[in-house]
Write a structure and sequence with these properties.
Layout: H1 3-6, H2 9-12, H3 26-43, H4 51-71, H5 79-92, H6 98-109, H7 119-135, H8 142-148, H9 153-165, H10 172-181, H11 185-198, H12 204-213, H13 219-245, H14 251-254, H15 263-274, H16 279-284
Length: about 290
């Protein structure tokens, strides 16, 4: 982040690049880097002394840039520039930009770019949105969960599209945070369905606590959570069994041959282990 004040736009452009082949052209990334750096230096010419203040300045400039890109007419093909700007959100985990991410999600669901974009370009924007949404801190998604319960059907369905992006293991903290903060039964039921599909065992302690907490207040949800816990345990049971059956390095020493040269005492002990048990062994008992 310090490169925004200490280096030029070329070095700053690395914040928006990917390793290997990149679907976003270099000239688009460079334009986004120049515009973002210009807005940042215009609002804050001198680098703030603390990391927190630098993050706030960067987030404010990024919010203004995303708002400007959203206001441009769709034929301008700004979706690649938005996707590049969202990479900065993903890499810096700027939770204060969550409102702007939800606004882009709403514009995508409303079909703001649909008549003008090809399927690959819409896919690029969707993947950038998914990465930004999952990279935001779980506690910063209050706007997302509030809009998820909005009486506006268009806004609510847009957030449901965002919920489809939270279907991987690294999104479990976001889903658990939404499950605890939401009070709407339908919203919580959809979140439990997502957790059941992900089947991440780290979610079980929170789910057990919420199952007990909702046993009286929302019995239907409590039973739904109980089923989710059973599914997660069952799906991870086979994986644990495979790990237990996998031989370890220590087991190799237990399978050494009896003819191995290990000295007179070791030789006698190995032959005693291979000798068939007799009645004297049972009468003798442990030494």
């Amino acid at each position: 982040m310090q490169t925004a004040w200490s280096s030029g736009s070329d070095a700053f452009q690395a914040l928006f690049a990917l390793e290997g082949e990149d679907i976003i052209p270099g000239d688009v990334r460079l334009k986004v880097a120049i515009e973002l750096r210009h807005r940042l230096l215009e609002a804050c010419p001198d680098m703030p002394p603390s990391v927190l203040s630098r993050q706030d300045a960067f987030a404010e400039a990024l919010r203004h840039l995303l708002s400007t890109l959203l206001e441009l007419p769709p034929p301008m093909s700004v979706e690649l520039a938005i996707a590049a700007a969202l990479r900065a959100v993903s890499r810096l985990r700027l939770g204060t930009v969550a409102d702007s991410v939800c606004g882009i999600l709403y514009a995508l669901h409303r079909g703001h770019w649909a008549p003008y974009l090809s399927t690959p370009r819409i896919w690029t924007l969707r993947m950038a949105l998914a990465g930004a949404l999952c990279a935001l801190p779980p506690e910063s998604l209050q706007t997302f969960w509030r809009d998820f319960e909005s009486p506006d059907p268009m806004l609510q369905n847009a957030m449901r599209l965002g919920l489809e992006f939270l279907r991987a293991g690294h999104a479990v903290p976001h889903l658990l945070a939404g499950l605890e903060s939401s009070r709407e039964h339908t919203t919580r039921a959809r979140i439990v369905d997502c957790l059941e599909q992900i089947a991440e065992p780290s979610a079980i302690p929170t789910l057990v606590r919420l199952r007990q907490a909702t046993a009286k207040s929302d019995w239907t949800l409590s039973r739904h959570i109980a089923r989710c816990i059973r599914v997660i345990e069952q799906q991870n049971k086979e994986e644990h069994e495979r790990l237990l059956l996998r031989p370890s390095e220590a087991a190799a020493g237990l399978l050494r041959p009896a003819t191995r040269d290990s000295g007179p005492r070791g030789r006698k002990e190995e032959l005693d282990l291979l000798r068939p048990a007799s009645s004297e062994d049972f009468l003798r008992g442990p030494e």
